[in-house]
Write a structure and sequence with these properties.
By secondary structure, the protein is an alpha+beta fold. The chain folds into two domains: about 1-105, GMP Synthetase, Chain A, domain 3 (2-Layer Sandwich), CATH 3.30.300.20; about 110-170, 2-Layer Sandwich (Ribosomal Protein S8, Chain: A, domain 1). Helices cover about 50% and strands about 20% of the residues. The chain has six helices and six strands, in the order H-H-E-E-H-H-E-H-E-H-E-E. The strands form two sheets. Strands 1-2-3 form a three-stranded mixed sheet. The protein has a three-stranded antiparallel sheet with strand order 4-6-5. A hairpin with a 5-residue loop joins strand 1 and strand 2 (about 60-65). The longest helix has 23 residues, at about 105-130. The relative contact order is 0.10.
């Protein structure tokens, strides 16, 4: 009986085929949620640009004056803002769709740094024939590392640890 419930839950979690109309609804909903939250911050006039990312996710990039407060130390406030916007958007539209909140390209710059870290770690793992353990990262950051190295035949990646100590290990394949 439990296995049936799990199978049913898994099939319920599958994302539907997203049409342009659905994508517009997702974007409108996410922007509405984001604007509602931003009213509680004293950030003045902002512009929210929407576009589709490389992995099919919806990216909302906020630009304006005095937005550092929304990024927070090491991006923690931005991470929390994205979590809340995503959770409310999923609740309103009824299915999961990846929504990324960025502030003046902060996440884009972080992504470039993480991709460079992934490449250098892969080079080190392959040349030294040993596992390279990276610092603990958020799920979003770990995903960037995994995606950056998925086509590198010299290495494979795995996430290890739990909670805030979860990190990526870059493992040489010895191919």
């Amino acid at each position: 009986m439990e296995e049936e419930e799990i199978t049913q839950m898994e099939s319920d979690d599958q994302e539907p085929e997203v049409t342009d109309e659905m994508l517009d609804e997702i974007a409108d909903t996410a922007i509405d949620v984001l604007q509602s939250i931003l009213k509680f911050f004293n950030v003045g006039e902002v512009t929210i640009d929407e576009y589709e990312g490389d992995e099919g996710e919806l990216i909302l990039d906020i630009t304006g004056e005095s937005l550092a407060i929304l990024i927070g130390r090491h991006g923690k406030t931005l991470e929390a803002l994205q979590f809340v916007v995503s959770a409310i958007t999923v609740r309103r539209i009824g299915y999961r769709y990846p929504v990324i909140v960025d502030i003046e390209g902060y996440k884009s710059r972080q992504r470039q740094k993480l991709e460079a870290l992934a490449r250098s770690s892969a080079n080190r793992a392959a040349s030294q024939h040993r596992n390279v353990k990276l610092r603990p990262m958020t799920p979003y950051e770990r995903r960037i590392i995994h995606i950056a190295l998925r086509d590198d035949e010299r290495v494979e990646t795995a996430s290890e640890g739990e909670g805030s100590n979860r990190h990526v290990v870059v493992i040489p394949t010895h191919a």
